[in-house]
Design a protein that fits this description.
It is a single chain. The protein contains four helices and seven strands, in the order αβαβββαββαβ. It has about 120 residues and is an alpha/beta fold. A hairpin with a 2-residue loop joins strand 3 and strand 4.
Length: about 120
């Protein structure tokens, strides 16, 4: 989920190249929420169009969905409950964020079996 069009488009292209189906990209939390159950993983910006995505992140965690945060926020500024979530801080590239997310998906056992079948959020 990303509100900056060019970043979202770049991330979506990289996700497709990695062999995943993209649901999104979504530029609002309300747009993304109905699609959470289908995700094998999620790249999430912490602030989307001025709205905190903390509630969405909480929902993804409850569902056991692997997450990587791709955000301009430093990890030290995030709530303690998200301390275990990997953070790739902008302006580092989306390729790095995707690599981190793919590691999370693999660690959760949701990688190859779901690849090509389930959408990944960008």
């Amino acid at each position: 989920m990303e509100d900056e069009y060019f970043i979202a488009d770049d991330c979506a292209s990289l996700v497709r190249q990695a062999g995943y189906r993209v649901a999104g990209p979504f530029c609002s939390i309300d747009d993304a929420r109905p699609h959470l159950a289908d995700a094998c993983g999620a790249l999430v910006d912490v602030n989307v169009n001025g709205t905190s995505s903390y509630g969405l992140i909480d929902d993804l965690l409850k569902m056991g969905t692997p997450i990587a945060l791709y955000t301009g926020y430093d990890k030290s500024n995030l709530p303690e409950r998200f301390a275990h979530i990997p953070v790739v801080t902008k302006p580092r590239g989306c390729a790095e964020a995707l690599e981190v997310l793919c590691e999370q998906i693999g660690s959760a056992g949701k990688g190859e079996a779901r690849r090509y079948q389930r959408p990944i959020r960008a």
